[in-house]
Each structure stands twice: as C-alpha cells, then as structure tokens.
Amino acid sequence: MNPYGYMAMPMQQAPMPKPRQGQGQYPQGPGPGTSPALPAVEESYIENIFRLNRGKMVTVYTTFENNKEWNAKIFRGRIEAAGRDHLILSEPSGRRYLIPLLYLDYATFDGEIAYEYPYNG
Q1: Closest C-alpha among 107, 108, 104, 106 to residue 64
Q2: Which domains does the chain have, with CATH numbers?
Q3: Residue 38 above 80 pLDDT?
Q4: Positions of the region Disordered (predicted)?
Q5: CA 58 to CA 53: how far, in whole Å?
Q6: HSE-up of 45 (CA within 13 Å, CB side)?
C-alpha cells in the first residue's frame, strides 16, 4: 500500500521465447556483410526544439479544459529539460514547473530559437 491509498499492480514480464530445436539462437544484431544502423537523427518534434533551447527564457501558453479556476495559464521561466510529453521550467526565484505538453498551446522566446532541422541539405 502506498501513501495514496491504492495498491500498485505487480508488473509481469513476458518470458522470451526459446528457439526450437535446430534453429540455433536468435540474431543478436547485424549479420556478416551488413552495415550497422545509422545513429538516430533528432527530428523536428516540439520536445526536441525545447531541448535545443535549454537554458533560454521562454513564455509558455497553456489551456486546461474544464478547469473553472484557471482555464488558461501562462508560465515564464528558463528551460531546464524537455521530455517526450513534458517541459520543465525554472523561475529566477527557484520555483520549478513541470508542464505536460498536452496542455501546451504555444511558446514565445525572447531571442532567436535554436532550430536544427535534420533534413536541411
């Protein structure tokens, strides 16, 4: 039982299937004569743009539907980190915000936006 009053469900991991008789082992990577996979290229997703601009001041405009207290909210701070679904901002006072990108409408920056589109050629 945790402090929130509910029990965590145990995680079950599916067992790896075993190779059948005579099949040998499963492949463990590129075989002989094949080239290794190219490294992943940063794609133009909003979280990657926030990552490229880590340390810059940003104003983030959000909308929280069905919220009677504050439907729209504006956050201002320095970008500390960005994940696939969230943004972390810090104010000069030390307060930090974890903002789910689900609620993001748009963001404005004080200066230039670092944006390295991977397919500029």
Answers
A1: 104
A2: 46-109 (2.30.30.100)
A3: no
A4: 11-38
A5: 9
A6: 12
Q: Which tokens go with 62?
A: 């959000």
**Amino acid making up residue 39:** P
Q: Is the pLDDT of residue 34 over 60?
A: no
Handedness of CA 20, 23, 25, 29 (dihedral sign): negative
Write out pLDDT tens, residues 1-13.
445 454 554 555 5
Kindly write down the DSSP assignment for every residue of the chain, as one continuous string: --TTS-PPPPP--PPPPPPPTTS-PPP-S--TT-PPPPPPPPPS-HHHHHHHTTTSEEEEEEE-TT-SS-SEEEEEEEEEEE-SSEEEEE-TTS-EEEEEGGGEEEEEESS------TT--
pTM metric for this prediction = 0.61
